[in-house]
Each structure stands twice: as C-alpha cells, then as structure tokens.
Amino acid sequence: MASACVADLADVPSNAEAREAPAAITLGEIAMGRAWNVRGDVARLPFVSEVQRVLGLPLPVQAMTSARGEDGALLWLGPRAWLHIAGVSAGSLDFDTARRRINAAGGALFDLSASYVAWSICGALAGRVLNRSCPLDFHADAFAAGQCAQSLLGHVGALFYRPDASSTFVVTVARSFAADAWQTLCDTAKSDGYRMASPAPFTTRSP
C-alpha cells in the first residue's frame, strides 16, 4: 500500500515548520506492500487453518488484538473481518493465489492496498498527542502492545495499531481523507515539537 507522499499533500506544515520546536515526536509515512481484507467465520476450522497457512499468521479472535510476524501483521477489525498488512519487502505472496485458497476454505480476501495511507507516530508523548484528536485511551495500561482499534482522528475514521511495547503507533486512514488526517496529526503534535522522518516500509520491529 504505497501511500501518498506527505510532500504531495496540500496545506500541511513543511519540514522547516516542523523543526521550529525541539522534536518530542517523530511522524513518518509508511509504505505498505500489502493491505488485504480477510473475511470469514472463525467457527469454520478449515477457514481459520487456511488463513494461517496462506498468510503465516494466526487469526486473532479476541477484539482489538493482532498477530504479528517478521514482516507483517493481522489486525482484528470485527468478529468476521481482519486487515493483513505487510511491508514492501514481505515475500512474494500472490494475491490471486491467496484469494482462491481462502475462498475455497469458506472465506474471502480483498486487496485494499491502493485504498489506504498509513503513518507512524513515535515518541514518549505519542499517546498524548493522539489523544488530542482521538477519544481512545492510548496509555500502555489501556492500549497494550499488539492492540488495534478503529476510532476517529479528528473527523476522519482511522485504524490505530500499537505493534509493540515501544511508544510507536501506526495510524491508517482511507486515501481520500489522507490530507485531512495528516493535517490533524501535524496540528496535534506541533505544541510538543515534531520532526518528519523519511518514508519507510512498514515493519513490526521497533525503530
């Protein structure tokens, strides 16, 4: 899922503006190689087993949880829906082959790689910054490593994911709302000071 370059988004703060204050927060564009929507019934064991064989990750069945691998993750969206995200260097798994195998097991697979844009927000104050525009509680006691949830970023629907115990979050939004979401992230981080990192592939490893 190659996101729109932040430099191409209109009416957003420049690198120079971002450097005016000491950087407590780092914002960066994430390049996604895959964003696949998995759908099915966890009561169907052939479906659950085939998803794990195809994607190499077990289906998370508990709300707001995820499964993480070397180069990708599988995020819970609902009782019958998940989002598989992976970096641009993640394997050569063919979508059509994966779709046929999961469909044959009673599920469904949709390629949404061109439909989303994602950013990372890193730093000890990352949770506090996100709380200025999102009602979720991002404290580690409430939003632990591996958790994910859908909520609002300002007025834009977004998916929030905390890959590990570090103070790093991944924020994913629909591409059509990318400019508004990016503006919100920059505005909420400005008072603490932030810097803009170079675009980087999605990874489940801490920076």
Name its key features.
single chain; 207 residues; alpha+beta; Gyrase A, domain 2; Alpha-Beta Plaits; 10-stranded mixed β-sheet; 5 helices; globular; disordered N terminus
* CATH superfamily annotation of the largest domain: Probable tRNA modification gtpase trme, domain 1
- Strand fraction equals 25-35%
**Terminal Cα separation, in Å?**
20 Å
Helix count, per DSSP?
A: 5
What is the correct CATH architecture of the largest domain? 2-Layer Sandwich
Shape: globular
- Based on CA atoms alone, the radius of gyration comes out at 17 Å
Topology, number of strands: 10
CATH class placement of the largest domain: Alpha Beta
Give the SSE string.
HEHEEEHEEHEEEHE
CATH topology of the largest domain: Gyrase A, domain 2
Structural class: alpha+beta
- Mean pLDDT over the residues: 88
Major sheet summary line: 10 strands, mixed
Helix content: 10-25%
Uncertain segments are 1-21
Kindly describe this structure:
By secondary structure, this protein is of the alpha+beta class. It has two domains: 6-31 and 115-199, 2-Layer Sandwich (Gyrase A, domain 2); 32-111, Heterotetrameric sarcosine oxidase (Alpha-Beta Plaits), CATH 3.30.70. The protein is 21% helix and 34% strand. It has five helices and ten strands. Strands 1, 2, 3, 4, 5, 6, 7, 8, 9 and 10 form a ten-stranded mixed sheet that branches. A hairpin with a 2-residue loop joins strand 7 (148-153) and strand 8 (156-161). The radius of gyration is 17 Å and the shape is globular. Mean pLDDT is 88; it is low at 1-21.
